[in-house]
Amino acid sequence: MEKEVLVWPFGKKNPRPPYKGDEDESRPCWKKKSIFFELEYWKFLPVRHCLDVMHIEKNVCDSLLGTLLNVPGKTKDGIKARLDLVEMGIRTELAPNLDGPKKTRLPLASWNLTLDEKKSVCGCFYCMKVPQNYSSNVHNLVSMDDLRLNGMKSHDCHVLMQQLLPVALRAVLDKPVRVAVIRLCLFFTEICNKSFEVSKLPKIQSDIVETLCLLEKYFPPSFFDIMVHLTIHLVREIELCGPVFYRWMFPFERYMKVCKGYVRNKARPEGCIAENYIAEEAIEFLAERLLSDKTIGIPKQRSKDCRRTSGAKISSIYGGEFKQAHLCVLQNTEEFSSYFLEHMEYLKATFPTFKKNKKWLKDEQNKTFADWVKKRVEEQLMIPENNISETVRWIAAGPCHEVAKFSSYIVDGVQFYTKLLDDVRACQNSGVYLEADTMVVASARDKNPKVCKLSFYGVVDEIWEMDYSRFMFPLFKCDWAESSKGVKVDDLGFTLVNLNRKGHLKDKFAIATSVHQIFYVQDPIDPMWSVALRGPQRDYDDLVYGEEAGDTHCDHQSCTDRMPSVENGEGEIGYVRAENEGILLNE
After folding, report:
1. What DSSP line would sit under 473-529, residue for residue?
2. Radius of gyration of the chain (CA)
3. Of 207, 211, 153, 201, which is closest to residue 177 (Cα–Cα)?
4. How many other C-beta atoms lie within 10 A of the C-beta of residue 236?
5. How many CA atoms, within 13 angstroms, populate the side-chain half-sphere of residue 183?
6. Which of 365, 446, 513, 518 could make a disulfide contact with 433, Cβ separation 3.0–4.6 Å?
């Protein structure tokens, strides 16, 4: 005999009876059963509903910031949450103090920030300058009077969880709590990547399980609502459905703005949207199929859009800097690689006593290669049947000494500024990062240096455009940070750069197309250092080829080079902060 299932009437006129606790265990906990469950194949589907990572990330970010900053209406902490702890008989030292005459005082828990820590976090956000098109202006989201963040959109929460929040929390909270929060942020960074190694997905799943266990040790039970729980299931959906950017709501939310722009008559919005959509589709069909030969879709290679975006200042350049710039162009032109090898053999034959001194040979080659290759190419051009390309011919002859300098330049669709222009703008576009093979010496007496790949961090000081008659090469003159004492990685994996310690003074120039744009956030622990963060790299120029639903700005680089281990967060801390503060609530 089948067990009778209780069915409650629904609606405002027939509300469900109140819950009676343990005596009412037979009462169904769900109000509605979806009609999809009547389909015969529904129970065999491995994924019945796709979880939207965008809204999960936004809700987790709002709960996390609201709890840390104790924002009224958004915090998961409060007198009810503390009374729940008393009723459950756990963390009794966090019980509210009800003896106050007018206000109830809550002890400062492990997840609460002190007043100075709130000022530190909000001040860090307030002073942040991010690259153009990275996010909205973070400065405008911060209220230093209320010590909170206001008006955050979904994409603002996305960039905060991906990169900015772990930096702002570096100097606050006890280390175990801070490590747990940073691990949660890095989890969202990992699952939002556009490509995955399937073998690493089990490790990501185990990391989020450990992270939530850590958070349960330090955060109140009320913090763990359904949105925090859903993070457990995101890795499984990646295994079954692929990367999240195929399924999240960013492109559809952006397209809603396009649809709203179609509305001219607010009394008939659906008709306006349908009419304008059909008209736009017809115009695009005629323009793309009948009036041009361009194929529809994403181009196979990224856009090579390089252009000036400011006025030029012409300067006559001579001396060491001019030679450095010309040598940089020669070293980064593939056609001259054989000439560098030939010149090195020439130096070894000319100076046999320095044949084994690699450092001397490299320095001598940098000094004399430009003049040598100019004569060498001239000799080859004297031969009637030569195979010298136009690139080698004009670059070997050398650039014009009249150099155009710019304050802003677009390289591969990315806007770059000089440091001088950056200081007066609301965004930061002067940070650059470069990976290059360079010669490393152990000391000044080291005669056998090793060639290895190094990372260079700096800012753009000047933008030059070298004129080779037939070719124009944009170069960045950069102030690089010293690699040995100006760059370090801390125990949590953050890359810290001291821009005041300048190095590589004899190699200031870099080809504009070979650098990556980064931005710096002042370290809350030590203002002399800055945390280096890399923005999302564009796959193609979506301003030209992209559609309205395109999405190329949500794949962020991790703010650290590794996931902090659980051991980094080990340490015995109490549930009550050591600071002699509390949270005052009106009764």
Report:
1. EEEEEEEEEPTTTSEEE-TT-BEEE-TTSEE-TT--EEEGGG-EEEEEEE-SS-TT-
2. 31
3. 211
4. 14
5. 25
6. 518
Quick one: tokens of 316? 């006559």
Look up residue 18 and give its DSSP letter.
P
Residue 144's nearest CA partner among 118, 164, 167 is: 118
Q: What is the pTM of this model?
A: 0.86
Residue written as token pair 């240096």: 449
Phi, psi of 204 (to 5 degrees): -65, -40
Q: Please count the residues of the chain.
A: 587
At residue 554, the pLDDT reads 57
511-554: per-residue pLDDT in tens? Answer: 999 999 999 999 999 999 999 998 876 654 444 344 443 444 55
Task: Report which secondary-structure segment, H or E, holds 154.
Answer: helix 154-159
Is residue 557 within 8 A of residue 569, CB to CB? The reply is no
Given a cut of 80, whether residue 559 has pLDDT beyond it is no
465 membership: H or E segment, kind and range = strand 450-467
375 is written with which tokens?
Answer: 């004569």
Say how far apart CA 84 and CA 87 lie, in whole Å: 5
Q: Give residue 398's identity as a one-letter amino acid code.
A: G
Which whole-number Å values give the CA distances from 85 to 90, 94, 228, 231, 583, in the listed order? 5, 8, 19, 24, 16
By C-alpha distance, which of 531, 558, 498 is closest to 127? 531
Helices (H) and strands (E) in the chain, counts: 17, 18
In terms of Cα–Cα distance, which of 526, 577, 578, 413 is closest to 70?
Answer: 577
- The burial of 550, by beta-carbon neighbours within 10 Å (0-12 exposed, 13-18 middle, 19 or more buried), is given as middle
Q: Are strands 306-308 and 408-411 parallel, antiparallel or unpaired?
A: antiparallel
Give residue 172's identity as a one-letter amino acid code: V
> Which residue has 């945390």 as its token pair?
531
In one letter, which amino acid is 573?
I
Residue 482 backbone phi and psi in degrees, to 5: -65, 130
pLDDT in tens, 418-446: 999 999 999 999 999 998 887 776 666 66
